[in-house]
Design brief:
3 domains, 5-stranded mixed sheet, 12 helices, binds flavin-adenine dinucleotide
Length: about 425
């Protein structure tokens, strides 16, 4: 791989019709995740496209000139001009290839693609999902000297990496930024000797054969598989929701209710989770407005009665949210009365959305035993109904979904996997 500095960039740009430039830094986990992909693609496309690396910290002038403010950043150039996407963070091989292909004639792209050789990787334990459940399992397995590979379509850390502050994970007297806790966990797993393939495309999961295909051409075969792919909140998919996720809109009362001491909150939803979580939020908030699309709550009767009797809680029946925005430090929820069609706004300090969660199992088609909500059923050793397949964390059928419980599940699963040696 050719490394340049800012002084030689112009010369390279003039000398090469096609060029891709990787701005990297040291102590940068996403840069480490990118490096082997970048090397492998250089071998594949290197006759047609010049692959270059540049150390961002020592070449700030060029970085600034090209608008690069984080590492890694990949820039593509054709005939001296920047082209294609600017790729940052957890960069996938498929995203790079898409940009490289766009720089070449179609027949050459076909030739290059036909040179991609299928690859097989063997491991003892394959962990799907590098969140707290998967990382805890990886630490135990790797420390037991069991060949362990973690695979994740994103960067390691799971939901913790996108959590603003975590104050209830033992061992840290002060609240920790979620991304730091996630970083510590993943570094601990790496230091223990676990291998990682992160920011990859997961194409196929065959639990019975214990095979997973990643990045289109690599088949990973394992003796045991741990599914720790987590769960995702169901989204409302309305304006402003993605934008204010974690910045005024929360999906977890246990995690965030404490930040609303003596403040006003809006809760979207009227089912079991919304109503039960409103009880916890009510311990902190001064006022709660619950927005429920139906003319009644659908939670269990006892919880409903408690919510209806709570003087802090107002319930707006037959209303739906239409969008979110921020005004100063206030959250605005635009709502519509489904009976009259009247539109209005609710202004509060924060919003909780509880319209359901779903396990991340889209790629799993094997007949795993699941509960009525689609979460995987496991025994006390985290074994699933398929021999050699374990599950841990938010993806399993259970009551409490927290970092501590995911880590506990991962620990139990890993010890059972190690015993199955
Ligand atoms: C906004 C927010 C704040 C939170 N705050 C707290 C808190 O303060 N304290 C607390 O204890 N808990 C908190 N939680 C809950 C906590 O984050 C979860 O319980 C915990 O992360 C679950 O860990 P996990 O490993 O099971 O799953 P996750 O953390 O969800 O990790 C799953 C991983 O699997 C990967 N994945 C998905 N699909 C696949 C696939 N097909 N193949 C391979 N990998 C895949 C994902 O990319 C992800 O990295 C919070 C949750 C949210 C959403």
């Amino acid at each position: 791989m050719t490394e340049i500095n800012q002084d030689s960039f112009e010369k390279e740009l003039n000398a090469n019709e096609n060029l891709v430039l990787d701005f990297y830094s040291t102590e940068c986990p996403p840069c480490e995740a990118l490096a082997p992909k970048f090397d492998a693609l250089d071998k594949l496309y290197g006759n047609d496209i010049r692959f270059l690396k540049i150390f961002r910290q020592e070449n700030r002038q060029l970085a600034e000139k090209l608008g690069v403010s984080s590492s890694p950043t990949l820039l593509f150039f054709k005939n001296g001009k920047q082209t294609g996407d600017v790729l940052r963070g957890g960069i996938k091989r498929s995203d790079i290839m898409q940009n490289l292909d766009a720089m070449l004639p179609e027949d050459r792209v076909r030739e290059i693609h036909s040179a991609i050789k299928p690859k097989t990787t063997e491991t003892n334990s394959l962990i799907l999902g590098a969140g707290p459940g998967g990382l805890a399992a990886a630490i135990y397995l790797a420390q037991a000297r069991i060949d362990t590979l973690l695979v994740d379509p994103a960067l390691p850390g799971g939901q913790v990496s996108t959590t603003h502050m975590v104050s209830n994970y033992p061992g840290f007297p002060e609240p920790q930024p979620g991304f730091m806790l996630a970083h510590f966990m993943s570094e601990q797993a790496k230091n223990a000797g676990a291998n990682m393939k992160v920011a990859v495309d997961i194409n196929k999961i065959d639990l019975v054969k214990k095979e997973v295909v990643v990045d289109g051409h690599e088949t990973i075969r394992a003796r045991n598989i741990l599914i720790s792919t987590g769960a995702s909140p169901r989204y409302l998919n309305i304006e402003g929701e993605r934008e204010y996720y974690g910045r005024g809109i929360s999906y977890c009362a246990t995690c965030d209710a404490k930040y609303y001491h003596d403040r006003e909150v809006v809760i979207i939803g009227g089912g079991n989770t919304a109503v039960e979580e409103s009880e916890l939020i009510s311990k902190f908030a001064s006022k709660i407005t619950m927005v429920q699309q139906l003319p009644y709550l659908t939670a269990n009767k006892v919880a409903q009665e408690r919510a209806e009797a709570d003087p802090k809680i107002d319930i707006l029946y037959s209303h739906e949210p239409r969008g979110f925005e921020k005004r100063g430090d206030k959250m605005v929820v635009r709502i519509e009365n489904l009976e009259s069609g009247e539109k209005s706004e609710l202004i509060s300090d924060g919003v909780f959305v509880f319209v359901g969660m779903k396990p991340n199992l889209d790629l799993v088609s094997d007949p795993l035993e699941k509960d009525e909500w689609g979460y995987i059923k496991v025994d006390e050793n985290m074994r699933t109904s398929i021999p050699g397949v374990y599950a841990a964390g938010d993806v399993i059928s259970k009551q409490v979904r927290q970092i501590t419980t995911a880590v506990g599940d991962g620990t139990i699963a890993s010890l059972a996997m190690a015993r199955s040696e």
